[in-house]
Design brief:
Blueprint: E1 5-10, H1 19-23, E2 28-34, H2 38-48, E3 52-54, H3 57-61, E4 67-70, H4 77-86, E5 90-93, H5 101-113, E6 118-120, H6 128-138, E7 145-153, H7 169-174, H8 184-194, E8 198-205, E9 220-226, E10 231-237, E11 245-253, E12 256-259, E13 269-272, E14 283-284, H9 294-297, H10 301-306, H11 311-323, H12 333-351, E15 357-358
Parallel strand pairs: 1-2, 1-4, 2-3, 4-5, 5-6, 7-10
Antiparallel strand pairs: 7-11, 8-9, 8-15, 9-10, 11-12, 12-13, 13-14
Helix pairs in contact: 4-5, 5-12, 6-8, 8-12
This protein binds nicotinamide-adenine-dinucleotide.
Length: 374
């Protein structure tokens, strides 16, 4: 392996947000950027001093890069990941991992055959409150956890049509289908807290009330049964007219609970039996920061500069460690599918009136059996 590893970015908007994180890793250099839109390529390359510019993804893959960072629209994620993995190029891919079960199968097959690492860049799992709550759950402060909520309310009307009125990828792939089509920001952190996967989902929608008409319900709720019996509720709402709250979470255990902020400066709050006086005595989550892992309490200076309190650095750092073969990617292909597949399966549940539908575990897939039969 020749260091520094050469990074190629595809999707010159979102993928470029990793530049600071890679810049803070001495083992990598951002070497190439690709986008169908040449102006976007030039803007990103000029801003970050990236030497190689491409408008065709395959040309970038064949240019000698070691890492592909995929930040294109979600319907391209699986096929672009497969194309990189087939060339033994490491992949850091935006959410979601895939848009169909068939694509999930293709991704798993490609990862099994590849020498390269794959990680999904679910950055919400790296936000500081999420990491802190994860540590508190691991240390048993909430007792046995049995219920959680995640909500992604993010009205994106302005991104559903181009200036000429043509529907965008978000219109087709996020709100052009029924079901929990964009679940990973909500489900990812919860699955890390529960250290589990979803076994079955039940999905219902509120119906459509908000013009212009789209296939997706204004509010979609996906109820997830985890493999150890716990219950998780996910609200996915990219349509309702309201302020954004993309990071609302809660967790309930036998000894305590956590509720994230719902805005207007309200703190994230915790109640723990024996550590808070009375049933109304919430304490701010910030009072529990001693439970953060050491590298989060005292992040390196370059991590802080990368943004999101260090989160944008840590996601890249974990991926680079995986690419270097130092440890497995925390959100590897199977974990990425744990976050993604419940949403795909929820489409069947909602179309069938909310029946419970099993969520396949791709770890158990032989690579051949029909995906429905998993
Ligand atoms: N993790 C997060 O917090 C977060 C935030 C925003 C977006 N995203 C994800 O990032 C992805 C991109 O979102 P966005 O908001 O930047 O979208 P966007 O539409 O603003 O930008 C997509 C870019 O990809 C380019 N592109 C499209 N097809 C391409 C192809 N075949 N080859 C090369 N370039 C191509 C487009 O020209 C465009 O510049 C989406 O999957 C979205 O879900 C994640």
């Amino acid at each position: 392996m020749t260091l520094p590893l050469k990074v190629g970015l595809v999707g010159a908007r979102r993928a470029v947000s990793t530049c600071r994180g890679f810049g803070a890793c001495p083992e990598t250099v951002v070497h190439a950027v690709c986008d169908l839109d040449e102006a976007a390529v030039n803007a990103a390359a000029d801003r970050y001093g990236i030497p190689e510019r491409f408008t065709r993804y395959e040309d970038m893959l064949d240019s000698g890069i070691d890492i592909a960072v995929i930040g294109t629209p979600m319907q391209f994620h699986a096929r672009m990941s497969v194309a990189a993995l087939e060339r033994d190029i490491h992949v850091l891919c935006e959410v979601t991992a895939a848009v169909s079960l068939e694509e999930c199968g293709q991704l798993v097959r490609a990862q099994r055959r590849s020498k390269a690492a794959y990680m999904m860049a679910e950055n919400y799992c790296y936000m500081q409150p999420v990491v802190l709550v994860r540590e508190m759950v691991r240390q048993g402060l909430f007792g046995q956890v049995y219920f959680g909520e995640g909500e992604y309310t993010h009205e994106l009307e302005g991104l559903h049509f181009t200036a000429t009125g043509a529907p965008t990828w978000r219109h087709t792939w996020q709100v052009g289908r029924r079901g929990c089509t964009y679940p990973t920001h909500s489900l990812g952190p919860l699955l890390e807290w529960f250290d589990d996967r979803v076994e079955s989902v039940t999905c219902l929608g509120s119906g459509r009330h908000t013009p212009p008409e789209r296939r997706m319900d204004d509010v979609t709720v996906m109820l997830c049964r985890l493999s150890h019996g716990q219950l998780v509720s996910i609200r996915n709402d990219m349509i309702s007219k309201r302020p954004h709250i993309m990071t609302y979470y809660s967790i309930q255990g036998t000894k305590g609970c956590y509720e994230a902020s719902r805005g207007t400066g309200a703190p994230h709050k915790v109640w723990l039996e024996g550590q808070c006086d009375g049933p109304e005595a919430w304490r701010p989550l910030s009072e529990f920061e001693e439970h953060l892992p050491e590298f989060w309490r005292n992040p390196p200076e370059e991590a802080v500069k990368a943004g999101h309190g260090g989160g944008d650095y840590f996601v890249v750092r974990d991926f680079v460690d995986a690419a270097l073969g130092q440890r497995p990617a925390p959100i590897d292909v199977y974990r990425a599918l744990d976050y993604t597949v419940p949403g795909l399966v929820s489409e069947e549940s909602i179309e069938r009136g909310g029946v419970s539908v099993a969520v396949p575990d791709f770890r158990a897939w032989d690579g051949v059996a029909p995906l429905k039969a998993l």
